[in-house]
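User: Teach me something about this protein's shape.
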Amino acid sequence: MLKKNTMFGKPLVSVFLIHGGPGAAGTLTPLAELLAPDIDCFAPWQTVLTIDGQIEELREQITLAGNLPVTLVGHSWGAWLVWLFAARHPHLVKKIILVAPGVFEEKYVTNLMPTRLARLSTREQNYFQQLMGYFQDPAYKNKDFVMAEFGSLMRKADMYDEVQQGQFEQKISFEVYDHIWPQAAALRKTGALLAAGEKITCPVVSFHGDYDSTPPEGIINPLSQILSDYHWYILKNCGHYPWAERYARDEFLKKLKQELS
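Assistant: First, the predicted structure itself:
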């Protein structure tokens, strides 16, 4: 059964948008709405607490609602998920598009958080430390709220010039994050994340903002070495959420639609 999904267009669609986080279900709904006038797309929610489980959950969603094979657009953590999915189920995937993915090798994990914190005010940096304390306190119960507040701070740090979006339904889940992220980080640390690309047979595209705190070379360099059909775009004056950036949104949407056509 499909749960808490946002579907735009025909009953069977060829484009699936996979949210980031992990545990930030619904965050790609604004992008889906921007694409919907021209492209039928589906933005399902991933809720399972293991990576293997989320891959299987996505397989069920795609086989139920997809005009196979489909194109997968993944943002941030969602980019890793579509990468892993394409490696496991290549027959179901026509193309994968990675939007602001995390770096694929441990050696590129360097200045991410210091870069973000340097972009925040002193008050915001203090609030960040307070949130970290709540995360680490086993007695603190409302960690979904803490994660939402943390996400808002990181979003501010990772945006060049944000265009405000309207209200949309989403589900921020610390439980999903707390289970999925350690598994994902372990895949990167052991090299299994990058190695999965050796099983990917479809074209791969990536988008990166030049203001994103994630260094684009941490994606472009390793993927260029293992993929035969790969190209990328660097977006000027753009952070981690290209569809919400004042100066990059039009270019991003134009190029994304070209890749989806």
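Now, about its shape. Residues 6-260 form a domain with the Rossmann fold fold (CATH 3.40.50.1820). The radius of gyration is 17 Å. If you'd like, I can walk through any region in more detail.
User: That's plenty for now, thanks!
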